Amino acid sequence: MRWIIFIALFWPAAASANDWAALDQPGAVAIMRHALAPGTGDPAGFDLGDCSTQRNLNEAGREQARSIGDAFRARGIVFDHVFTGQWCRTRETAQLLKLGPVTEVPALNSFFGDVSTRDSQTEATRALIAEQPGLVFLVSHQVNISALTGEFTRSGEVLVIRAGPKDIEVLGSILIEPPRP
Q: What are phi and psi of 114, to 5 degrees?
């Protein structure tokens, strides 16, 4: 019991994981941290156009992305727009979800290696959310999601958020655990 309380206090998303009903709220948007990609950041000198130079999804991450997409489809949840960053791990996650046509948006790119773009990318993401009609799904990186929401997300975790006049409200969290080897 103590662990549950500890987790709920220090990692709020864990306390409310699988809040599917949050997607029914007006203005709800789903934003997901890419699926499992072992490691942190990217190798020095990586090339955005060359997946072989980046940190990528492993097989467990690919299976996690497929499982997440299956869970959304099993609930009949249909997205009007699916947006992703240009990193290979976000793009591959978005494609494996099979929740709709995927559109790349530079604002969803990681700024882990260059925080100077944090504010401008966060504002561009807020604007993207505000201007899209219908139900929107975004795939991005932990640093981007934290800058936007103030929340830390696990690989494959989906936050359900809503843009308010001055900030982003977190309505819930959906986490489909990756398969165990």
A: -155, 85
CA quadruple 126, 131, 136, 138: dihedral, nearest 10 = -40
Please give the tally of structural domains in the chain: 1
What torsion, rounded to 10 degrees, do the Cα atoms 34, 40, 43, 46 define?
A: 30
Residue 103 exposure: Cα atoms within 13 Å on the Cβ side? 12
Are residues 118 and 147 in contact, defined by beta-carbon separation less than 8 angstroms? yes
The position carrying tokens 């604002």 is 107
pLDDT of 42-78, one tens digit each?
A: 888 899 999 999 999 999 999 999 999 999 999 999 9
The closest alpha carbon to 28, from 36, 17, 19, belongs to 19
Specify the pTM. Answer: 0.88
The 10s digit of each residue's pLDDT in 79-135 is: 999 999 999 999 999 999 999 999 999 999 999 988 999 999 999 999 999 999 999
Going by DSSP bridges, is the β-strand pair 29-33/136-140 parallel, antiparallel, or unpaired? parallel
Residue 131 lies in a domain: yes
Question: Could you give the CA distance from residue 177 to residue 158 in angstroms, rounded to a whole number?
Answer: 11
Instruction: Give the domain CATH number at 111.
Output: 3.40.50.1240
Tell me, what's the pLDDT at 94?
Answer: 98
